[in-house]
Every structure is written in C-alpha cells, then in structure tokens.
Amino acid sequence: MADVVIASQAKPQFREASAWDQLKHNRNWLGFWFMLPAMAFLIFFLAYPLGLGIWLSFTDTRIGRVGQFIGTENYEWLWDDAIFWLSVFNTLLYTFVASALKFAIGLYLALLLNENMPFKAMLRAMVLIPFIVPTVLSALAFWWIFDSQFSIISWSLKHLGLISQNINFLGDTTWARICVIFANIWRGVPFVAITLLAGLQTVSPSLYEAATLDGATRWQNFRYITYPLLTPIIAVVMTFSVLFTFTDFQLIWAMTRGGPVNATHLMATLSYQRAIIAGQLGEGAAISSAMIPFLLAAIMVSWFGLQRRKWQQGENND
Amino acid sequence: MSSVHIRDVRKSFGNFEVLHGVTIPIEDGQFVVLVGPSGCGKSTLLRMLAGLENITSGTISIGERVVNNVQPKERDIAMVFQNYALYPHMTVADNMGFSLKLRSAGSDEINKRVKRAAEILALTPLLDRYPRQLSGGQRQRVAMGRAIVRDPQVFLFDEPLSNLDAKLRVAMRTEIKELHQRLKTTTVYVTHDQIEAMTMADKIVVMHDGIVEQMGTPLELYDKPENQFVAGFIGSPAMNFLKGHVRSNGVATFEGPNGVKLPLKSAPTASDGKPAVYGVRPEHFTIADDGAEAEIVVVEPTGSETQVFAKLGGEQVVAVFRERHQFNPGDKVRLKPDPSLVHLFDEGTGKRLNA
C-alpha cells in the first residue's frame, strides 16, 4: 500500500510546454505583450496617418473622389509654385526668428527666476500663464490687439501723440509677419523658460561657490559653468521649440489665415488651405510631406548636439 | 602662507544668531581643525573665512589684511568642498587649471602648475578624465589638486572626507596631513569627526552652539578638557560621567551614585559635599582589589583591545582593556580609575574643577 502511494506522489505529471505556454511565459514574448498597447496607439494614430499622408501626396485625390497614383506630379507642380516657395521662406523665417528670440528671452527669464527674490513662487507661476491659455483664445486676443481699427496699441500711441493714424498691423506684410512672430514668442517663451529653469536648478550651488573662489565673475560663472552644464537641456528644449514653431498652424490661422497676400502663409496653413478648403487632398499632402526633410534636419542637428558631450557619460575607460 | 585672525566674529541669519563671538588666532603654517557636532557653526565660520557668507560683526584677517569686505577671489584662499564641487564638464586638468585660466595665466604656466600638482597627488594618468570617470578618492584628490594649483595663502577644507568609505577616509587623512607637512600652507579644516581632529591637527578648536568651548593641541584637549562638553566630545569611546559628591574630610574621595566610593588624587579646596561630575576615560580603568564593584553587562572584543560595558553603582560605564581578561556577562569585577587621570567637573556649569 505504502509503496503505491509513494510511487504516485513521486511521479508528477510532466507535459511538454505547448507553443501557447511559451507565448505566455517566454520573457521576450512577455515584453512584446506589454508593448502591444503602446505600439497599437503609435501605429493607428501616428504611423498610419503619416503613411497615408505620404501616399496621398503621390495621388491626385480630391475631396469626394478617390485619386490615382500620379507619381511625383504634385511635387513637380509645387516646384514651380511661387506661393509654395513663399510659404517655405515664411516658415523658415518664422521658425528661425521666433525660436532664436524664444531662446534668448526664455534663458533670460530662467536666469532671473533662478535668483532669490520676493514672490518667487508667484512669479514662476505667472510666467506659465501664456502657456496655459488655449492657443486659439490667445490668438483671438492678439487679433483684437492688432486690429486695424480697434487696436489698443494704435489707440495708446495715438493718445501719446506718437502717431496720427492707426497702424495696419495685420494688413501690412511686414507688420503682419512681426505680429504673428510676436504672438508665437509670447506663447512659446514659458515652455523654454520653465524647462531651462528646471535645468538650472539641477546645477549644484557649490559649483558656483567653487568658481567664485576660483575667481570667476558673474559673467564667467555663466559662461564657464551655467551654459555648458545647461547645453543638454538647451538641445532638447530647442528641438521641441523648433518643431512646434515649424509646424505651427493655430496661431496663424486664427490671426491672419496666411494673409495679407500670403505674407504669413506657413507650410502648415498652406497645406490646410489647399487640402481642406480647396479640396486638393493630394497637393495638400505633398506640402505637408515637404515639411518632413526640414523636421528631420532639425532633429538630426539636436541629436548630434546631444551626442557630443562626453562628460555626461559615466563610462570608465581611458 | 599667512596667519589668520578671527576676532569676536558673530553671525546672524535674520534674528537668529548662530555664532556668538568667536575668537581664534591661527599661526602661519598651522593646521587648525574646527570640530563640533552638527549645527555648532563650524562650517558657517569656514564659509565666512572663504567669503561665501557675510560677517555680521567682528573681523577676520588673513595676514595683516582685514578681509571682511574683500571679495572671495581677492582673499587668496582655496577651498575643498564636502561634495568636491568638481566641474563635471571639465577634465581633471581643466578643473585644476580653471582658476589660473580665469586669471589669464599663459597655457605654459597653467600646464606647468597643473602637472606639478598632479605629480604631488599621483593624478598624472587621470588628467584627461572627466570627474564622472573617477572614484571617490580620486575626486577627492582632484579637489585638493585644484586647491594646490593656486598656491594660496590658506587652505580651507569643509568636511572633505565625509563622503568616503571608512578605509579610504583613514588613508586620505594621512595623505592630507602629509601634504600639509610638505607644503606648510596654513590650513583650516572643518570636521565633526573627533578622530580626524585628533590625528591631523596642530591645534583643535572645539565648537558647540556657536561658541568656542576650548582650543589647544590634541593632547591638551585629551588630558585637560576645560569642561564636560569637551571631555565628552574628545576621545573614543567617550568619557564616563558619574554624578555625586566630593568628600574632602581626611582622604579625598568621590561619592558616586548609590554611595560607590571612587578615588581622587586631591579634592578641590573647600569642596566637601560639593555636588560634582566625576569623569574617567574608558582606558583609565584598571582591575584592582581596591576598586569599586561593577557588574559586567556586555563584552566587545576588537582584537587589539576589549570594550567592557558594566554597571557601576547602578550607572552604565564603559572600560577598555588592552589585556585579555576572561569576562562574561554577569561577572562581578572591581574597577579602579587611575586617580591621577580622573577629571572633576562642576555639576551646574560643567567647568573643570581639578587642576
């Protein structure tokens, strides 16, 4: 009797692991299962629209009509389109000027807010205001501020006796460009300032003390300590800033719709106008796709900018 | 090199005074250690000497010059920080040469001086590395190298060894002392570790709650602590304190807790029945037939010596023996303090009573 009992316990039932068991327990498959939801999101909402956009740019699709593959005809057409080239110029100008000023002002504000001063917490919160107001709302406010008849700026200057006639802010090509760039800077500075401030706060105060004892002036403290230690953050924040500015749509559309005489048309707004308003989906998609090389270039610049700093890596070789 | 004079220096943060009039003379070439528990004001004093904190009142002079209103960079001092404060984006060589670069020294001059400092500290193979690629002890040496390169009047050290592991700390202690013997630069060193203070200092300044409790050579402080705080702070394991009364009728003795009789070499004048604190260092106990009876609680052998915790008159005391006694918990032994080495303190003020 006893033998039988022991024998049955000593022989547990082994079975071959099935393929399904492996899918459930293999580490690599497990990782795959966990990645699946994120991958699905990225594929459906990012990769698919991007692929579709690029495909559309090679067709003559219009709203209400399935298009046919026409090769690079859309791009050839755009190559000879002066308005397209104007929008490219506008976008580059807009991105370059706005990003440079956002960086300068943002860095200045960050350095200022990093100092000890009264109401520091409140001032830091206030800097964020332009960032939390919905873009369209702030664009509408700017639309009124720059209105040709009711502009508060023109009104003030007139009452100060500095001008005799209203300035046609959004009606004049140069003024319109200045105005939209100004609005973009106003909106974008908080992001740059707060991110750089976060970066500044990671710099150990004892480094400044050491540098002060080493004989550094305030400027040398910035030049030799703050700026080099901030470069990784600057690279990231400016990449994002450039990408957001380059693809800006809302501000322009709410303020000028690309006018006057296409002077503020960016590639994004031109694409929308051609594709959605005019119904030429293929051509609009081609304009959008033409932004990709510029954006890739911007990413590459910051990527290589981030790579170079050896001091950040902790590798222990000679 | 230079002497340093700290005269009646006070420091307040708002209405809160952290230093209550501190006077410390430091001779040219001396190695002075400021030691005390956290919050005693020793680091604040060092930072005032460096020029990183304002001086509320009093004067600090380096050499003949009062430096109260002199910018840190004009004071000709170099400081080693607790976290080393190495510039993470600069190589070891650049870290060490930074101060010279700011003073627009020529690159030949910078190279020469960095190389010399690197040789002194055995850093030559590491000159091209970044701080991240160094071990704790190497970073510590770079921080010192940065100070040496400047060839300053005074070196300041702010708890430089507290981030190192125990073994490295002992090694670096010797290294810093050796460096000082070689360079003979006036050094002010802050630590909370009394062993560091004892082993390194020419002169120890014991600070507590913003005042100087005592200053003197390590052995002066050990042999004749001026008050109960210094007596308890210097020495490891710490001195035993027993409360009781002085008896000076006939043979001077000390009546400890629960009437236990302890020997005194001589009683302070007119002190019969005076309440006092009897201090005896663990290493000054011997086992003797005429000692006071004590019951052993815990025995901790370390090899070279044995620490014995015992109840003496109901109070726990610790004794250290270099001989290997066979003790077990619960054993009764007779502990006798060496009467010529005991300390007597006023119970109220903590001041030393015996000569």
Automatic annotation (TrEMBL), chain A:
The upper taxonomy is: Bacteria, Pseudomonadati, Pseudomonadota, Alphaproteobacteria, Hyphomicrobiales
Q: Which UniProt keywords apply?
A: Cell membrane, Membrane, Transmembrane, Transmembrane helix, Transport
Q: Where is the signal peptide?
A: none
| Gene3D superfamilies noted in UniProt | MetI-like
**ABC transmembrane type-1 domain segment(s):** 88-304
Q: Which Pfam families match?
A: BPD_transp_1 (PF00528)
The protein's name is ABC transporter permease
Its membrane topology, per UniProt?
Multi-pass membrane protein
Q: Where in the cell is it found?
A: Cell membrane
For the keyword Lipid biosynthesis, the answer is no
TM ranges are: 32-56, 82-113, 125-146, 175-203, 224-246, 285-306
What family is this?
Answer: Belongs to the binding-protein-dependent transport system permease family.
**Main site of residence?**
membrane
From TrEMBL, chain B:
* Key word Metal-binding present: no
Q: Name one GO molecular function term.
A: ATP binding
| Swiss-Prot/TrEMBL keywords | ATP-binding, Nucleotide-binding, Transport
Pfam families attached here? ABC_tran, TOBE_2
Q: Which SMART domains match?
A: AAA (SM00382)
What is the role of this chain? Involved in beta-(1-->2)glucan export. Transmembrane domains (TMD) form a pore in the inner membrane and the ATP-binding domain (NBD) is responsible for energy generation.
What is the official name of this protein in its record? ABC transporter ATP-binding protein
Please report the organism this UniProt entry assigns to the protein.
Answer: Bradyrhizobium iriomotense
